Structure formats: C-alpha cells, structure tokens
Amino acid sequence: MLCYSNLFCVSNFTEEQARNRFQSELEFIQCLANPNYLNFLAQRGYLREKPFVNYLKYLLYWKEPEYAKFLKYPHCLHMLELLQYEHFRKELVNAQCAKFIDEQQLLHWQHYSRKRTRLQQALAEQQQQQQLPHGNATAK
Amino acid sequence: MAVRLSLASTWRAARPSKEMLPHTMTDPPPNRELIEMLALSRSQKLPQGGEDTQILELLVQRDREFQELMRVAQEQGKVHQEMQVLEKEVEKRDCDIQQLQKQLKEAEHILATAVYQAKEKLKSIDKARKGSISSEEIIKYAHRISASNAVCAPLNWVPGDPRRPYPTDLEMRSGMLGHMSNLPTNGVNGHLPGDALAAGRLPDVLTPQYPWQSSDVSVGMLPPHHGNDFGLEPPGHNKENEDDVEAMSTDSSSSSSDSD
C-alpha cells in the first residue's frame, strides 16, 4: 500500500479516487462487449468525439496480463481493438450492424459448447466401439 | 682477264662499301658479300688499304657492339626467365589468397547466420520471459471466465435464455457506473424488449455486486496514471502507462511468488 501512495503522490488523485477510477474503468470496458451498448454509444455520437476516441486508446492498457486477469468478459478486449478503427466506429451507428455482431458473437459463444458436445459424442462412440470386440470375445 | 674482272668487281664493290660506311655504322650486321670482298681486297693488296682498315676497324667495332648486345641480350633473357618464374610464383600466391578469401567469406557468412539466429533466439527468450505467467494463474483465470459462462455458452442454452457473453442491461445498471449516472431505461440500451421481459427471471448468480465488477479481488489494484483531459492528444501517455504497469507488475509478481 505504501508504494502506491508514493507512486501517486505527484498526482492529485487520492487512493480512494484511484480505486474508484479502476472500478469504473473495469466496468466500462466490459460494457464494450455488449454490441447493443456500442450501438447506443454510436447513435448518440460518442464514438465521433475525439476525447472519447482518445479514451478508448487509453483503455488499451487492459490488454496487459496484470489488468486483463480482472476481466470477466474477455470479448470486450476484441471489441476494444476493433473500436480503435474509425470505420468500425462509423458502422456501429447501424442497428443492423450491431444485430449482426450480436448474432455472430452468440454463435461464437456457443461454438465451444457445440464442439465439446461433439467431442463427447465422438468419445462415447469410440468407447462403444471398443467395447464391442470385448463383447465378441466373451461371447466366444 | 679473269683477275682483271675480279679486280674490277672488287674495286666496284669496294666503292659501294665506302658509300656504305655511313650505313654500316647504323645498319644491322654487314652482309657476307662485304666481308668476302674485304678478304679479297686484303689478299690482293689493293692501294685502297687505308679504307680497308677503316672498314675493318668499323667491322671490329661493330663486332664488339654485337658481342656486347649479345651479352646484354643473354642477360636480359636470364632476367626475363627470372621474371617468368616470379610471375608464376605471384600467380600461385594470388590463387592462394583467393582461396583464403573464399573461405573467409564462407566463414563470415556462416558466423553471421549463426549470430543472427542466436539473436533471434535471445529475442524470443526475452519475449517469453516477459510474458511468463504462472500456470496456476492461467488455470484460475480460465476457470473464472468459463464457470461464469462468459466465454462458453452453457450447455443447456436456448434462444430466449437471458444469459450473454457480455454484461446485460441489468448487470450494467446495477454496477457502480449505473448508480453514478441516472440512465433512463431504454429498450435500445442493452437487450431487445423481448429479452428484457424474459430477463424478468433473474439469473441464479445474482448478487448485489456482480463478479465482473470484482472490487474484492482487485484490492490494491490501481489504473495507470493519467490526466483527466482526454481532449488533448496524449503524446507521452503510453510511456506513463508503461511505467505504472511496470511498477504494478513487480508488485503483482511478488504477490504471485507469495502465493506460490
């Protein structure tokens, strides 16, 4: 704790304020994983403002492992990377675009569980096949 | 008659030799005829003795010169031979040098490749060291994001299920940010109206503070130092981030070593 106070003695933030800032930035960056929220921001013109764009660039520090380990929704990092591009920010104004992103995100989200069920099925089939020769052997 | 004829011929021949005097001084060796003629004139003891002696002296001189030339020519021949031998030596040495040059170039090439590959290896070692994280931490994190279905859909998920890979409308509003600002409830903000109705069923893990806000875990964790003004172009702010992150990393690494 002492080192932190030394580190921030030059700034005008108190420790409390810095902690709050951390908390709010953590929440905000994870909200970026929500395409509907991104569409909301775009339609209200936030994504066109230069300070906001600078803020998005600043938020890239969450990619570092020391910070990333606090993210519960890692999709937000990918969204953050995409948000660095102006083209992406412009496209987000369309509700259709946000809907498309949402659909693809959900499909991707389900991809692993589908893959896992397929693997489990394949494993079950393999075990069944292995049991069959034994069954034949005992029958003989 | 024959003698008179021969006399006449020698006298006539001697005449041209007189004329040839200046020529013999400069010309190449005197011809056989002149010598024969002189021999004849000598044997016949003609009154032109004085001129004969002159010619003879010239001949002798010429002979001496020729002897000298021959000697010089011989010496030059020897020198030329030596030169040839030396040239061969020089050629041989040149070949040797070229051979050595080729070998040196090859060796340099091999060494340069080796050094380059070693440098690349060192770079990758450095990179790996920088990005090294304890496997326990990775497993913990993987468990965290998987168990909460943040990256992998629950196996019993069907369309209509309110769970999502991102914080939903409800979660966003119940967080610190949601409480800070009074956001009007809006169908656009967050789920579509249909899902919002379905979200009337609260998820099982509903707590006043969602795990994605993780304030308890992040005790002592602070964001990088940055001014409040994002309106300006931040020229050196990346550096600031790096400094702070470094400070954080030393601290976090020490804490991870404690946990190990």
Automatic annotation (TrEMBL), chain A:
One of its GO terms (cellular component) is mediator complex. The keyword Lipid metabolism does not apply. Coiled coil: none annotated. It is found in: Nucleus. Belongs to the Mediator complex subunit 31 family. Component of the Mediator complex. This is Mediator of RNA polymerase II transcription subunit 31. It comes from Oncorhynchus mykiss.
Automatic annotation (TrEMBL), chain B:
InterPro entries: Mediator_Med4. One of its GO terms (cellular component) is mediator complex. Keywords: Activator, Coiled coil, Nucleus, Transcription, Transcription regulation. The keyword Membrane does not apply. GO terms for biological process: regulation of transcription by RNA polymerase II. Residues 216-260 are annotated as: Disordered. Residues 249-260 have a biased composition (Low complexity). The keyword Disulfide bond does not apply. Residues 83-117 form a coiled coil. It is found in: Nucleus. It holds the Pfam family Med4. GO terms for molecular function: transcription coregulator activity. Component of the Mediator complex. Component of the Mediator complex, a coactivator involved in the regulated transcription of nearly all RNA polymerase II-dependent genes. Mediator functions as a bridge to convey information from gene-specific regulatory proteins to the basal RNA polymerase II transcription machinery. Mediator is recruited to promoters by direct interactions with regulatory proteins and serves as a scaffold for the assembly of a functional preinitiation complex with RNA polymerase II and the general transcription factors. PANTHER family: MEDIATOR OF RNA POLYMERASE II TRANSCRIPTION SUBUNIT 4. Belongs to the Mediator complex subunit 4 family. This is Mediator of RNA polymerase II transcription subunit 4. It comes from Oncorhynchus mykiss (Rainbow trout).
